[in-house]
Amino acid sequence: MRVLLINSNRFKQPWPVMPFGLGCVAATVEQAGHTVKLLDLCFSSDPAADIRSAIAAFSPDAVGIGIRNIDNSAGYNTLFLLDDVRRDVVNPCREAFAGPIVIGGPAVGVNGAEMLEYFGLSLAIRGDGETAMVELLRRIEAGMPLDGMPGLVRRVNGRLTDDNEPMRVADLNTLPMDRIYDHIDVAAYHRYGSALQVQTKRGCALNCSYCTYNQIEGRRWRLRDPQRVADDIERLVKKTGVRLVEFTDSTFNYPLDHCKAVLRAVAAKGLNLQLRTMGLNPGAVDEELVELMHAAGFREADLGAESLCETTLRGLNKNFRVADVLNAAKLLSEKKIAIMWYLLLGGPGETEATVRETLAAVNDAARPWDLVSIGIGLRVYKGAPVAERLAEDNSNGAADGFFHPVAFEPEGLDLDRLKTLVKSEALRRPNCFMFDEDETTPLFVMRAGTWL
Predict the structure, then answer these.
(1) Do residues 362 and 324 lie in contact, with contact meaning Cβ atoms separated by under 8 Å?
(2) What are phi and psi of 412, to 5 degrees?
(3) pLDDT tens digit string along 341-363?
């Protein structure tokens, strides 16, 4: 079959993100014998025209649309992104193509049924999309029934008939990870400082109160062979010339032994890399890990501190304590690895006192060349523990599965008050910025920032 895959993500803050997941699907579908074209709309000035042109020129038998984000994940000043996706991507596809259209991606793993209704579509894939897409195409091509297919979410005549458990890829080593960028214009992203994305595992066995990773990827870790990870990085660097690589695991350093094995294998390649990760959990950072990170090529790391107050960490159901955060920061600093501190304020149990405690502690611990990213409030997502709590209370948002933005508000602390409090503190610190305020930053400013 001829399969057109469309990257609908045009959200570019804090930088444009290469469509890694869609690249995985493209490589796997191609490996299964289908002809694939990936239409990337990230930098498109006229998505509808580009879609019409691609469909006319390629004549696909099926269209897949990757949807990365429901919104910007901010609990305060939440930016809902799917109105634009519906208007600029889904509707033009429906107008230009009469065949099967299937949506997938992380957002679909959270609200697949709600998204089908919102878009007026019939087919979606939850969770891992690679083998599920191949199976869906097999059934469509053979005229087989779709009933009960793992990973399938389906509406028939406007009624939900399937909302099945994901079709997990049991052995990630079978995926053609070295070919995920064959259909992606890497240079266009690299101009804005975007990194090549690499996964060492999927799944998460932790249970943070706001998180949906274990819903999207599963509640157990599925590990890739460390040597395969290093080999893939080597091939990608040689193929693209890009040495900036980001590990996109939900939690990079869990399990710790596996993470260390990956770093040893990467360091042995001697590739002169610039490595980073958004998933460094303070609960599993020791001296050996930081030594290996430095040897492999880490010069910066995103530390998921969330808070430096014990009460707030317990409310977020984190697996670490303040001492772990400070120890991780100390070890990273000793190796001159710059830290992006990620704070998430406004969770269960948060008060003005706990907020001030966190800000004071970060002010003491963060170095002048570190950055501090502050998020206000929890965006409540379907399937997260905090969503289940609100659903039991019949709180606002439960009726549509928390599809449209709903923020958790701690007792006795209004989010507007929290924003004012944090903003006044952040203005006194030049290395602090507010996560909910950068969505309209022009790309030329981002390029200048990347250069600096």
Answers:
(1) no
(2) 80, 10
(3) 999 999 999 999 999 999 999 99
Q: Once rounded to an integer, what is the mean pLDDT over residues 210-232?
A: 94
Q: Tokens 């952040």 map to which residue?
A: 426
Q: Token pair for residue 164?
A: 């099945």
- For the record, the structure tokens of 347 come out as 């969770």
Q: Which two tokens stand for residue 263?
A: 């770093």
53 pairs with which residues across the strands? Answer: none
pLDDT at residue 91 greater than cutoff 80: yes
The pLDDT tens digits of the residues spanning 411-427 come to 889 999 999 999 988 88
Cα 134 from Cα 140, distance rounded (Å):
10
Q: 195 is written with which tokens?
A: 């990194």
Burial of 57 (0-12, 13-18, 19+ CB in 10 A): exposed
Q: How many CB atoms sit inside 10 A of residue 298's CB? A: 23
Write down the pTM of the prediction. Answer: 0.93
DSSP state at residue 235: H
Token pair of 177, please? 């990870």
Beta strands in 109-167 (DSSP E): 123-125, 152-156, 159-163
β-strands 123-125, 152-156: how paired? antiparallel
Please state, rounded to an integer, the average pLDDT across all residues of the chain. Answer: 92
pLDDT at 12: 84
Under 8 Å between Cβ of 284 and 254:
yes
